[in-house]
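Sat 14:20. Reprocessing the chain from the morning session after the first attempt stalled halfway. Input below, unchanged.
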Amino acid sequence: MKAKRQYKNSIELLQGTLDLLILQTLQWGPRHGYGISQAIRTGSGDVLQVDTGSLYPALHRLERKKWIKAEWIISDNNQQVKSYQLTAAGRKQLLAERSNWDKLARAMAGILHPAGH
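Finished this time. Tokens:
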């Protein structure tokens, strides 16, 4: 018999949602990878947690698309870290992604909470 997968009190992100969360987080200023994951975690009230196996491939993908850029900096604790920041193209993409998310949220609300029911 197959072992039951242990329930975890977190939400797995839909593909594409992580990109939106990263872009939104970087709108508030440059951050390194750990800072991005912490901002997502704390901003969501500990509901959304991004592991490094998902975060860094997403960051590299967004960098290839020129939506973010990276540079090496020295952190507050004197370590060399890669800092990511939003580009002009990334800001434009963030607006498009947010618009798409708003449409999806309205569509889901219409199904989950239909008027008249």
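The beta strands are 31-32, 68-74, 80-86.
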